[in-house]
Structures are given as C-alpha cells and as structure tokens.
C-alpha cells in the first residue's frame, strides 16, 4: 500500500520544466537521499522527453510512489523505445568505469545517462523495448525500533 503517490504528465516540451520541479519537490518531501536519486530521475525524464518525444512520443508519464522502505519512480513514453547495452546489467561489470570512460572520451558526447541512472539508484529496470524505466531508491534503514 503506497503511503504517497504522484503522477505527472508531460505532453510537450514546455511542461517539462514544471514536471522536473514537481518531481524534485516530491522527492525532497519523501526521501532523505533525494538529491542523489533526483539526478537519476531527471535523466530518465530527460531521455523520455528528448529521445522519446524526439521519436514520436506524444506523452511522458512520471509516477512517483513512496512505499514503506523505498521510493519507486517509473518514467514511460510512447515513442520508439530503445535497447539498453547488455553490459548495463551484466553481473560484475564495471559500470562506473564505463561511465567514466565514456565521460573522458570527447568523441562520446552521449550514452552516459543510463550508467548514471544505474549508479544513482538501488535498482534500475528497463522494461521491454525501453519505453518504461523503473528506478528504486531504498529509504535509509538505520532506524531500529527494538528498544
Ligand atoms: N526513452 C527513450 N526513447 C528512445 N530512446 C532512448 C530513450 N532513452 C534512452 N534512449 C536511447 O539510449 C541512448 C543512451 O541513453 P543515455 O545513456 O541517457 O545517453 P544520451 O541521453 O546522452 O544519448 C540514447 O542516446 C538513446 O538512443
Ligand atoms: Mg540521456
């Protein structure tokens, strides 16, 4: 049972700025780790708007859900979707290294976002042909109630 939920719809580039602001405000209200996680959520939103809407999507939906122990965000668009690189989810693969290598190579202006989303979340799931991305960040679980 979610303790809080928000759905944001973006149907044009103009709404995007407002959507970013409301996602940020919601995350700050519901998650101590919001600043870090927000980077990942921003990137997913940016991808849906730039690549999704740039390739046929006319709507982007952002769903933010606060559960007891985690915050879950899904970002979906109805564009062409994409196939993520297989190494993104490869066990033991150095994703952070890939991201840095990508950032250091001046010829590779693009392609860091997916690695960054993975690094800034506790769980990243890219559904099907990449029209939907789920990001999960666990809430700080250091609080115990056993006294
Ligand atoms: N929502 C999306 N719709 C279509 N293609 C996408 C979407 N998200 C990502 N992609 C594809 O995956 C690639 C990698 O994404 P990313 O790592 O964020 O790099 P960048 O956004 O800088 O190109 C993009 O260049 C694009 O081709
Ligand atoms: Mg990107």
Automatic annotation (TrEMBL):
Cross-referenced CDD domains: HATPase_RsbW-like
UniProt keywords, alphabetically: ATP-binding, Kinase, Nucleotide-binding, Serine/threonine-protein kinase, Transferase
Name of this protein: Anti-sigma regulatory factor (Ser/Thr protein kinase)
Every Histidine kinase/HSP90-like ATPase domain range: 32-137
GO MF term list: ATP binding; protein serine/threonine kinase activity
Gene3D superfamilies, alphabetized: Histidine kinase-like ATPase, C-terminal domain (3.30.565.10)
Organism: Salsuginibacillus halophilus
């Amino acid at each position: 049972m979610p303790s809080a939920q928000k759905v944001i719809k973006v149907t044009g580039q103009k709404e995007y700025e407002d959507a970013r602001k409301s996602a940020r405000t919601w995350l700050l209200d519901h998650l101590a780790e919001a600043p870090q996680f927000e980077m990942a959520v921003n990137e997913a939103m940016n991808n849906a708007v730039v690549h999704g809407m740039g390739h046929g999507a006319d709507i982007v939906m952002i769903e933010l859900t606060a559960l007891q122990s985690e915050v879950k965000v899904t970002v979906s668009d109805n564009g062409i979707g994409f196939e993520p690189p297989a190494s993104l989810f490869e066990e033991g693969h150095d994703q952070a290294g890939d991201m840095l290598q990508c950032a250091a190579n001046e010829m590779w202006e693009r392609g860091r976002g997916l690695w960054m989303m993975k690094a800034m979340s506790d769980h990243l799931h890219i559904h099907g042909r990449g029209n939907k991305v789920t990001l999960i960040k666990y809430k700080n679980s250091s609080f115990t109630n056993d006294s």
